[in-house]
Sequence to fold (182 residues):
Amino acid sequence: MPFCVVLAIVLQLLLAGMFVVMLGAYRSAGPRAQRAAEEATARQGVAPQILAEHGIRLEEGRGGFVVGYLIAAVLTALAILNLTGNELGRLLSWVVQPLVFLGVGYVTTIQVFAVPMTVSVFARLDDPRVQGLDIRAVLHAAVDVLPSWYRPATVLRWLLATAGSVAVIILLALPAAGSYFS
Fold:
């Protein structure tokens, strides 16, 4: 098996694994992060429900878990097809990886840059109830209850979803990969 195919498979499996591990950790950490954010908001004299009113939700809904595990399953299936030299795996990887790049890349970009983006949005809000709210402190309170490895893992997942997806597309298009799949 050519190295380029091995590397593409490893990248697909790493991203799938990141989804499983991070979703598992967030199942318990998400509610704690939500409580910490609400408590930090209340300590500043602002009603905690203001967060939800402005789209700040740190708990993952059931749909988010289903989509995340489905993405992991699809990436794993593609990696297995590629491992067995099945041309369908390569073709489907060329279809799926751009979608991962766009969809997962978009979502993880928001996660990686959540604090500065949220601070910027809250600074422009015309809601007098949030004018004195230190949203940066609220978000940092939430981040502080996450496992210490969670932030670096979020950045790694972002890199795998973006640069990793581009790499998979290129690696599977190399002549050595073409020979393997033919």
Remarks:
- The helical segments are 3-43, 49-53, 62-83, 87-112, 114-124, 135-144, 150-173, 175-181.
- The mean pLDDT is 94.
- The chain has eight helices and no strands.
